[in-house]
UniProtKB/TrEMBL annotation:
The keyword ATP-binding does not apply. SUPFAM superfamilies: S-adenosyl-L-methionine-dependent methyltransferases (SSF53335). It comes from candidate division LCP-89 bacterium B3_LCP. Keywords: Methyltransferase, Transferase. This is SAM-dependent methyltransferase. Residues 39-156 form the Methyltransferase domain. GO terms for molecular function: methyltransferase activity. GO terms for biological process: methylation. It comes from the Bacteria.
Length: 188
């Protein structure tokens, strides 16, 4: 396993838990992102999985906003499409299949980026975080959240250090059940 890698890629069979009503209760999207996402924003959901947060973000940005849902697994994007269509918000969502080492997007003018339970699965975290930083507008925010059961405190500190090196400044620490998280701004 390469030095940067801490885990494996979450299979689509886990979506039952990831998109469960219990998780929506414990990790309420409006409580978590409400301060950072506004109608009309362009947001990106990196490693969108089954689209739980993609759909919530699409509701928050409204018809005039845009959500780019990115995942490396085609099956995850298919599940996200079905979920978003069912919820009536697919009109403002763009699905994008990336590769393991390349997000493959430029010039998106992103207001808010999210990587929820994703970064520990990324083999080249430094490269990934640099690519995220390059997608953000100067006043944008980036929220990175990792699961405590996969990412120990010292591993999370290592990720924070890598984000700093990628040009992201610490803004607000996130306190959330079962999770470690940080909101970043673009470094000056
Ligand atoms: C544990 S799931 C989390 C899904 C979603 N963010 C959530 O919280 O419900 C991790 C997701 O990240 C995706 N992923 C892993 N490595 C990735 C990478 N390098 N780029 C984009 N997505 C990646 C996986 O395919 C999977 O869908």
């Amino acid at each position: 396993m390469p030095e940067e890698s801490m885990g494996h890629v979450c299979p689509p069979s886990v979506i039952k838990w990831l998109n469960s009503p219990l998780r929506r209760l414990l990790q309420n999207p409006r409580k978590i992102f409400g301060t950072y996402v506004n109608p009309g924003n362009t947001v990106i959901d990196l490693g969108c999985g089954g689209g739980l947060f993609t759909v919530a973000l699409a509701e928050m940005v409204g018809k005039s906003g845009r959500v780019i849902a990115v995942d490396l697994q085609e099956e995850m994007l298919r599940i996200t499409r079905n979920f978003a269509t069912k919820k009536g918000v697919m009109d403002r969502i763009t699905l994008h299949q990336c590769s393991e080492k390349d997000i493959g997007l430029t010039d998106q003018n992103v207001d808010f980026a999210l990587a929820f339970y994703v970064v520990h699965e990324v083999p080249d975290r430094k490269g990934f975080l640099s690519q995220v930083a390059a997608l953000l507008k100067p006043d944008a925010t980036f929220m990175l959240i990792e699961p405590k059961h996969h990412v120990k405190a010292e591993q999370f500190d290592q990720i924070l250090g890598e984000a700093k090196l990628a040009g992201l400044d610490y803004h607000t620490q996130i306190k959330m059940a079962m999770s470690r998280g940080m909101v970043f701004t673009v470094g000056s």
